[in-house]
Design brief:
Helix content: over 70%
Distance between the termini: 136 Å
Strand content: under 5%
Number of strands: 0
Oligomer: single chain
Number of helices: 19
Length: about 475
């Protein structure tokens, strides 16, 4: 009886060992597979799942399926080996990392948890599975890539058990950099979050700043502006403490520069939604970052946008200080553009100066800059800018009651508008230009008409009958 029991026990041990040596197939042998050909059979007389993959007869689709099966088998072997070696967390992470786009693998994975699933999903179309529904950066992997992922995950788990924290962070850092190269932002952020936990654990503030910067920039690139703001504000807060000396001004400036770019995009989002008060608040944060980063161009931009938003709220008194400062900044920008031979930049600076002076009521100065704007646009053959400048000059001359010059400018604009419409395909500008020309011509002849009405009634009747002005004009 004991011998039978020992034989049965030995037999069961052999079965377990065999199962460990030979991982389960990616596709179970249950009759015809997806690649089987009807009517074909293997040596045993049964239709096999590989029988339809004869290289001499398979189609392009068959070759693709073969590659898919090879990928699945390779991934399965790597994952199974990790589990057999006792690296459970590495197995879980590698499984979800390499099977996110495989629906069958997702079903096999069930609801088992992986930290990789904890990444927040920002778009409804991505579902609630986080990385399981992520991008296809890991759908197809080379052997060297699989080995790299396995080695880094194992190194992280092994060093964590031994308490070698710097090596754990180095492994996660390598994985994050790899995901960045694969343009898988969500997974990159996940691994940098791991690095952030470690940096905080060992109180490495320099490392914490570096990781916060990477995460913030990742969210910014992904369009997650609120998350980007959160992490980059933490980055700036630490930078103020760590880089407190005057020699560290450039390092502090880099932190403020990154945060300022996020503020600019957030403010533009509010401005586009007509939320001008919220936009002003965020543009002021952008201005503060630009000043601390010593970025003159960004300061000029933020000041102008703040003034523009105040004008949109019909608060010109609040707009004036920012626009006046913006004028001084644009003068510097104009000088720099001229020195560098940047005609487009010079034209934009002239247009901005003209706008600022027009809002400040300095019509003559605005006219001078618009004339420069027209000349530069004509020299560079920029029809759009030429038409814009002529229309703006026409409006300024009309406001100044210089109707002859207003008529000339609006007629010039009307000549240029067809070329603008041909580029943009928007006929609204042409209709507006037509109305402006008609109004300008009427204003130009208004004095003559009033003189006829007041002093030469018979001449007015002659004009009404013959549509010719009296010779006394």
């Amino acid at each position: 009886m004991d011998k039978k029991h020992e034989q049965r026990s030995a037999s069961s041990k052999r079965v377990v060992l065999e199962a460990q040596k030979k991982p389960v197939r990616a596709q179970p042998m249950r009759g015809p597979g997806a690649n089987s050909t009807a009517g074909t059979a293997n040596d045993t007389g049964h239709v096999g799942w590989k029988d339809g993959l004869d290289p001499s007869t398979s189609s392009v689709g068959g070759a693709v399926n073969l590659q898919t099966q090879q990928q699945a088998k390779m991934k399965e072997e790597f994952c199974t080996q990790l589990l057999m070696d006792g690296y459970v967390q590495s197995y879980v992470d590698l499984f979800y990392l390499t099977h996110r786009n495989d629906s069958s693998s997702h079903q096999q994975g069930g609801s088992g948890g992986s930290a990789l699933q904890a990444i927040p999903t920002s778009h409804p179309s991505e579902g609630n599975d986080g990385l399981v529904a992520g991008s296809g950066g890991f759908a197809t992997l080379e052997l060297q890539e699989m080995e790299f992922l396995r080695d880094q995950l194992v190194a992280a788990e092994h060093c964590k058990r031994r308490g070698e924290i710097p090596d754990v962070m180095a492994a996660y850092d390598s994985l994050a950099a790899y995901c960045s190269e694969k343009q898988d932002t969500k997974t990159m952020i996940f691994f940098y979050e791991k690095c952030l936990e470690i940096a905080r654990l060992v109180k490495d503030q320099v490392g914490e700043m570096r990781v916060l910067s990477q995460i913030g920039c990742g969210y910014h690139a992904a369009g997650e502006l609120d998350y980007a703001r959160q992490y980059l504000e933490l980055y700036v807060a630490i930078a103020k403490v760590v880089y407190e000396h005057e020699d560290d001004a450039d390092l502090r400036g880099e932190a403020h520069s990154q945060l300022g770019k996020v503020y600019a995009d957030l403010a533009w989002r509010h401005e586009r939604a007509k939320q001008f008060s919220e936009a002003i608040d965020v543009y002021k944060l952008r201005l503060d970052c630009a000043m601390k980063a010593d970025d003159a161009e960004a300061q000029t931009y933020a000041q102008f946008k703040i003034g523009t938003c105040y004008n949109a709220l019909d608060q010109p008194t609040n707009a004036l200080p920012f626009l006046e400062t913006n004028v001084r900044g644009d003068v510097m920008q104009l000088s720099t553009a001229r020195q560098n031979g940047d005609a487009e930049g010079e034209g934009n600076a002239c247009a901005a100066l003209a706008t600022a002076h027009e809002k400040l009521g300095n019509q003559q100065v605005s006219i001078e800059f618009l004339n420069h704007y027209v000349a530069i646009a004509a020299r560079t053959e920029n029809v759009v800018n030429q038409a814009d400048a002529c229309a703006r000059l026409g409006q300024i001359y009309t406001a100044a009651q210089n109707f002859q010059r207003a008529r000339e400018m609006h007629e010039k604009n009307y000549e240029l508008v067809p070329a603008v419409v041909a580029r943009a395909g928007d006929r609204v500008a042409q209709n507006v230009s037509r109305v402006n020309v008609g109004a300008a011509r009427a204003n130009d002849k208004l004095a003559t008409l009033l003189a006829l009405v007041k002093d030469d009634f018979h001449g007015l009747l002659e004009w009404k009958s013959a549509r010719t002005l009296p010779a006394t004009e």
